[in-house]
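Entry 14. Ran structure prediction on the chain below.
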Amino acid sequence: MTPAIVQKLTLEEFLKLPETEPSLEYINGEIIQKPMPKGRHSRLQGKLCAAVNQVTEEQKIAYAFPELRCSFGGRSIVPDVAVFQWSRIPFTIDDEVPDNFERTPDWTIEILSPKQKANKVIGNILHCLKNGSRLGWFIDPDDLSILRFLPEQQPVLLQKEDSLPVLPEIELVLTVNQVFGWLKMGG
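Output, structure tokens:
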């Protein structure tokens, strides 16, 4: 179970706290600790970031960040993967990636961890969509399925050979089976 830390803080006060491992999120006035990522979660997160960045970074189309704190709309969350269009990355004056992202990702990806509450995770995806994200994925490694979320549309359950939607500017073709195939590393 994901513990909620009972302490009433404003979002501004929360953002002044030191970062922790695993990360804390600020949701509806509560501070909630994300679970420590385990093997399957880490593998999927790493492969998803690599797959997106391989086809987007060199051409400066987009970038997939793992575990990036995004603060917007009264929340501060840490999606497992946050994909930003290149033009929406708030680079510093020295063209470096900033520490603080006070905006929604264009595409948010969450990977369900053991003992994590699915509705809290889905709630973060819905919050992103409500505040400007264009796409959300909810990955369930136990069920081998991915829920696709688009703004103002019903979620769609994708399985097996279903093609996974990506942002239109990203040329990446993946099926659900390909994503879960990344979990097979032995032999």
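Residues 35 and 114 are 8 Å apart (CA to CA). Will compare against last week's run tomorrow.
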